[in-house]
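$ fold --in a.seq
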Amino acid sequence: MGAVICAALGVDTDLTLIYQLFALLLCLIVFSRLTLSLRRPRVSVKRRLPRYATAGEPFEYYIEVANEGDQLENDLTLIDNPKVRAPTIEQFRSEREPGEETRNAYDRWLGFHRFMWLQRINTGIAVKQQAVPEIVLKSRASVKFEALPLRRGVVQFTSITVLHPDPLGLNYGITNFADAQQLLVLPRRYHIPANFELAGGRHFQPGGINATWSIGESDEFVSLRDYRDGDSMRKIHWPSTARRQKPVVKEYQDEYFVRQGLVLDTASEHADVLEEAVSVAASFALRLGNADSMVDLLYLSRKPEIVTSGRGNTNVNHQLEALAGARRTNLPIGDLAELALRQAPLLSGCIVVLCDWCDERKSLVEALRNQGLPIRVLLVVRDGPPPGIPAYVHVLRAGNVAEGLMQL
């Protein structure tokens, strides 16, 4: 910038000597650029991400820098580059930046600040650049990064940039290293009161132990008996079959245990309400999940989905992963009601998280209540609760969900 100003002011060399300063600055700039091209750091980089992060909660990770050259490397700076995602036209039109109403009329009309806010949210993470300590010959250094996930879902990293200054400190050289990775950001979770209990005790599960285990079969059987037509080959007890010279199968007993349902409504028209509903569902999935019971997560995606955790099925992390990728669905609420009613005979109790209140959602809740199933209904709203809400519906206002859950 100084060289440009001096060039403009020193056009007439008869009136001023500023052109001499321009010549000096130009020489310094040329020297700076030449040294950057002649001296590039010989390093390699490797990012080490955690398996999960949580939306809205800062976390730390490391990038390892290895000196592969024959001299000391210092004054390096690392920039980690997530994949930048611009908002779609539909998203730009439907969503609003928090506090946008306080901006002046021109900013609201232009929408620049809204565009940048949506781009940051879509990118999904904020990472600050970090300085690299001195790295001696053939050694390594781990650089700690602090990052803040801005949303749930998958965050993609594309490359790592290494900045190195010239000897005069006027310019930085840029070296990019391709290092594509992705990080799964789980939904934000809220604290559920310790005294919260979902009504409903142990419930009969048809099919016995085998019906509750999705990975292999249990070794705990009740007795052995002779093979009958129609028995599964997987139930054959081979040592007894060899001794008796005829097929013998293992017999299992039917079991009673707690199996709870978690129904999530993903048909919200408001992005902030949907995010809060997903966070509420994730909070209850974590609260209800344990090794002695089962939890069925029911929601609509491209199709009706059930994700079960506990008693030999997947653990609660798989439910959190499913919730991390949950998106607004265009399927009717009737599909969710059909799925919930089909699963209801197996359940001991049920939690229903809704994003709105209408006749279809009311029918869903009433149908579950008519099954004699103990349920708790939570309704997430943007403003005040709509009229005609039954007394058994617990209303949670978006932005104050934590306080609302503490009143359960």
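$ fold --in b.seq
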Amino acid sequence: MSTITFVFLGLLTAHTGLLWWLSWRQSQHVLRHRGAVPQSFARVITLEQHQKAADYTVAKGALERVDILFGAGMTLVWTLGGGLQWLLHGWRFLAEPLWQGTALIVSWIVLSSLVNIPLRIYRTFVLEERFGFNKSTPTTFVTDLLKSLLLTVLIATPIVALVLWLMAGLGEWWWLAVWAVVNLFQLIGIWLYPAVIAPWFNTFTPLPEGEITARVSGLLARTGYVARGLFVMDASRRSGHGNAYFTGVGRTKRIVFFDTLLTQLTPAQVEAVLAHEIGHDQHRHIIKMIVMNAVATLAGLAVLAWLLPQSWFYTGLGVAEPSMAVALVLFLLVVPVATFMLDPLMSAWSRRMEFEADAYAVTHTNSTDMVGALVSLYRDNAGTLTPDPLYAAYHYSHPPASERIGAMQRHS
């Protein structure tokens, strides 16, 4: 075995072991606190609701650990197991290197999605069904899957072909051109998603007239925020979970409420959730994430440009025939393994943005309503109130409930 093989196996083992251990810690921590509702939530969360959340978290954790091991196994199959080499041979009949490389990458993306179908089926029709959250039918599930695969092929094929063409034709500085193209496509995707892609899967209707609309109008007037679209999504077709999110840029910018959320919260609480989403926009969180992704992409492409001519990069990862397409796939497989210690930093940054949006919300609405909305979301979505601190620090994009509520109370 080469040095790169040993390094790769060591990093993969460390990454997999850490993720599995954190997931196990989360389940054990939640189970230890299953018997009593945290004191600060005792008046609003019943013991039965708290225990349902604990059981749901533990069940998700068990599936998560299977997923972690399966993901590590598939990484080995694609690399040292010869899967990528086998796929490369499968497309050898295409004489043109550009189309051979495009077919290799797109088929790898599709196959990587297909092998995860059994876990997705279990998650939807066993785990979510057991806890009363699944509303999806087999027909909806299959339709969503086919639409996703079709979109993947339609979107990925021209982008991959263009990237490989640039890599082959622009010499040693190809990575700067590819960086510009990738970022352009990302911006186009963010712009198109709300108006073109998302409607393939869900129906979006304007927020209906009523008390909620009146409160929304008052909030917009107080904050000076110009709404480009407030929509309700038919999330109840697939799940009983409630949520809201901010998406898009420019004219496609919109705030989306799950229809399930509107049935779970009071009009005043919906107003507070809207203020939170406006806070994300006012703090330019989407722009900041776009910039962060652009910087990370530039750094990654610079590293890939260095690795591209290195024969040990291919042979050490189980591929005997170097090519630009193979290098791209290997790089995408290796990056999560090599950079996993950066994940908690990104999670911490995301939690900071959530704190900022919460602070904005309680500044422009009643903090009691925001706290009530948060408690309702945890209760109705069976979110645990007692996460393991290390697991939360590594994985949580949103702060734990107790921390969010404490911060909101300090800002009110």
